[in-house]
Write a sequence for this structure.
C-alpha cells in the first residue's frame, strides 16, 4: 500500500528544529522550567503556544497574567487519536508565527490517560515524528514536559529516544540517547483476539468489505454514527490496498476489551512516515486516505516495510 505524497526531508537532514524533553517532579519544578522557557521566548520576541493538561494550564495562566503572546490550546478537542497531533501543531504554529516570527511550543502529553498499550505506543511515536515534521523549521522549537514523579527509568529512557535535547537547570543539552537515524523501533503488534472475522478482497470487493465491517461493528456495539465514519475509513484503506498493495488485501475484524478493530494487510509499502499526519493540500495528488482514517477513527496503527508489506489497524471505541 503506497500513497503518493509530497516529498519529505531526508531523515538524515540536520536537525534545526529544537525539540527538548523536560523531566520534572511536582508543580514547582513544572512551573520553574516552563516559565523560564516562556520568558526566554518573550524576551526574544517569540510567540508561545501551550498545550498542557488543564491543571497545568491553570498554574501557568495564574503566573502569566493574560500575556497576549502566549496562546493556550486544548488537545482534548482533537479526540483521542495521536495521529491528529502533528497536523494540529503545524496549524497552531503557523497561526502564531505570522511572517517569519519564531514560535515556541510547550506540549505535555497526558501519558497516564493512555487508553491502551497501543495508544501509549502511538503517543510515543508522535513525539518521534515531531522531529520529522519540523526537521527544517529553525523558527520553531518545542518543550515537552514529562512528569517523572513515578521515577520509572525505563519509561523516561524510552521517551528520551524521541527528543534530541534535554532541558536541565534552565538550559538544553544534547541527548545521547536520542534515536537520530534509522527506523522507529515499533513494538510488535499483538495478534488478533479470537474469535476474529476474516475476508480476502480484491478489485470489485469494496462493497463486500464495507458490508463485512458494518455487520461486525454493529455486533460489537459500535454506534451508528461511528459506523458511518468507519465505512468511509475502511473504503479508503481497502482502496489503497487494491491500488498500491498488489491489487488485493486481507481484512480482519475483532473486539478487544472496549475497542473494535479492523486490520488491513497487503503487500505494499508506505515509504513516507508522515503519510496521513498532515492535512492534504487542495492540489495534492493522493495522500488523503490515511489522513481521513486518522480523522474518523479513535486510533490508527501503521506498520510498513518493503519486506513484510503494510498493516493498518483502525480502532473504534465501543461504548460501555
Amino acid at each position: 500500500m503506497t500513497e503518493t505524497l509530497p516529498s519529505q526531508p531526508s531523515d538524515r537532514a540536520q536537525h534545526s528544529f529544537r525539540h527538548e524533553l523536560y523531566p520534572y517532579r511536582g508543580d514547582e519544578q513544572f512551573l520553574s522550567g516552563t516559565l523560564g522557557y516562556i520568558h526566554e521566548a518573550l524576551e526574544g520576541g517569540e510567540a508561545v503556544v501551550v498545550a498542557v493538561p488543564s491543571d497545568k494550564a491553570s498554574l501557568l495562566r495564574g503566573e502569566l497574567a493574560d500575556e497576549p503572546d502566549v496562546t493556550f490550546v486544548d488537545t482534548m478537542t482533537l479526540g483521542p487519536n495521536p495521529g491528529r497531533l502533528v497536523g494540529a501543531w503545524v496549524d497552531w504554529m503557523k497561526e502564531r508565527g505570522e511572517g517569519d516570527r519564531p514560535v515556541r511550543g510547550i506540549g505535555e502529553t497526558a501519558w497516564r490517560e493512555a487508553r491502551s498499550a497501543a495508544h501509549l505506543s502511538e503517543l510515543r511515536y508522535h513525539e518521534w515524528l515531531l522531529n520529522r515534521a519540523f526537521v527544517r523549521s529553525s523558527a520553531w522549537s518545542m518543550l515537552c514536559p514529562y512528569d517523572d514523579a513515578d521515577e520509572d527509568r525505563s519509561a523516561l529512557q524510552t521517551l528520551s529516544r524521541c527528543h534530541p535535547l534535554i532541558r536541565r537547570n534552565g538550559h538544553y543539552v544534547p541527548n545521547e540517547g536520542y534515536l537520530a537515524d534509522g527506523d522507529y523501533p515499533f513494538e510488535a503488534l499483538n495478534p488478533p483476539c479470537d474469535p476474529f472475522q476474516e475476508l480476502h478482497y480484491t478489485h470489485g470487493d469494496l462493497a463486500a468489505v464495507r458490508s463485512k465491517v458494518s455487520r461486525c461493528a454493529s455486533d460489537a456495539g459500535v454506534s451508528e454514527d461511528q459506523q458511518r465514519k468507519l465505512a468511509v475509513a475502511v473504503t479508503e484503506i481497502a482502496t489503497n490496498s487494491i491500488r498500491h498493495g498488489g491489487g488485493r488485501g486481507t481484512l480482519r475484524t475483532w473486539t478487544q476489551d472496549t475497542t473494535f478493530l479492523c486490520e488491513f494487510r497487503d503487500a505494499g509499502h508506505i515509504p513516507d512516515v508522515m503519510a496521513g499526519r498532515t492535512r492534504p493540500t487542495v492540489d495534492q495528488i493522493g495522500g488523503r486516505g490515511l489522513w481521513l482514517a486518522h480523522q474518523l477513527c479513535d486510533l490508527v496503527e501503521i506498520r510498513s516495510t518493503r519486506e513484510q508489506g503494510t498493516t493498518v489497524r483502525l480502532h473504534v471505541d465501543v461504548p460501555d
